[in-house]
Amino acid sequence: MLEIIKNDLVDDLDLTPFNNDQSKIALIDADSMLYYCMKEDTTFDEMKLKLDNFIINVLSELKCKYFTPFTTNSKTVFRKEFGKTREYKGNRKGRETPFLFYALRVYAQREWGFYDIPRIEADDAVAIYANGLGNNPFIESVICSPDKDVLRQIPGTHYNYQRNEFVSTTDEDAAKFLWIQCAAGDSVDGIPGIPGIGVKRAEKALEGIAEEDFSLKILKMYLQQMEESDIASSKEATDKFKETLDLVYVLRSSYDLDRLGISLPPLKYFNILKKLGKCPEEAEKGYR
C-alpha cells in the first residue's frame, strides 16, 4: 500500500532548497493514464502492471521523487453548470465505460493515491497547484498531462507523458490559445464557438494584435456574428461569448476558485521511493 508522507499544505514542507531535484513535485493530470492502460486487450493484472510501469517511467524521466496524481469526478464538474447552449461534453453521451475502468481506478486510488477534488477537473487542479507553488523557492513543480488545454493554456514547461516530450508555452502563446478556443470552441468537449469560425480563422484574426486586445477582438467577432444571423440582441451574443469562455478556460488561481465558490483542500503528495521500498541512496541515479 502506498505510504502518504504528509497531507498538509505544500508550503509547510520541511525540505531544503531543491538540489539535484530533491524537492521537485510532479503534478499529474492522471485521467488519461487509466485509458492508456486499457487500450489493448489485456487482463486486469496486466493493466495494473502497465499502470505501475507508466507512473514509474514518468517519474524516472522527470527525475522526480514526489508526485500528486489528480483525476476528475465528471458528475460534479462545475462546467456542467455553464453549458447552456449545448451540454458540456454532451457529445460523449452513450459511450459505455468498461467495468474494468472503474476497477483500475479503485486500484490507482488505493495503490498510487489518485484522487479528485470536487467540482474541478484534473487539468484545473494541476494548473492551480502549479501556480500556487510558483513563488516557492524550495519546491519545483512540473505539470504532467497529455491534454492540449493545460499544455497550451498554462505558461511554463510541461511534460506530455503520452508523447514523452516537454512542451514550453509562453505567456503570449497561452493567451492566444485561450482566445482561439473561445472563438472556435472545442469539438472534443462539445463546446460550441462562433458558427463558421475554426481554429485557422481564429488564428488569422489575432495576427498582428497585441495580447491585451485578444479578448476584445474575439468579443467583436461574436457581436459581428449577431449582425449576420438571427440572434436577437447583443446581450445574447455577449452571453454566448461568456459561456464559451467559462467552458474552455482552465482554472489557475485562488481568484478563479473564489468566484466559483470552490474550496481547495491541502495538497496530498506522495514519495515514489517509499512506494518502491527504496532509500534515497538506492535511487540515486533514477530519481535524485
Attribute tags:
two-stranded antiparallel sheet; single chain; 288 residues; Rossmann fold; alpha/beta; DNA polymerase, domain 1; 2 domains; disordered N terminus; 6-stranded mixed beta sheet; 12 helices; disordered C terminus
Please explain how this structure is put together:
It is built from twelve helices and eight strands. It is of the alpha/beta class. The strands form two sheets. Strands 1, 2, 3, 4, 5 and 8 form a six-stranded mixed sheet that branches. Strands 6-7 form a two-stranded antiparallel ribbon. Mean pLDDT is 83; it is low at 1-21 and 279-288.
How many β strands by DSSP?
A: 8
Indicate the CATH architecture of the largest domain: 3-Layer(aba) Sandwich
CATH topology of the largest domain: Rossmann fold
What is the CATH homologous superfamily assignment of the largest domain?
Answer: 5'-nuclease
Compute the CA-based radius of gyration: 21 Å
Major β-sheet profile: 6 strands, mixed
> How are helices and strands ordered from N to C?
EEHHEHEHEHEEHHHHHEHH
The structural domain count equals 2
Query: Which consecutive residue ranges, at least 5 long each, have pLDDT under 50?
Result: 1-21, 279-288
Which class best fits the helix and strand makeup?
alpha/beta
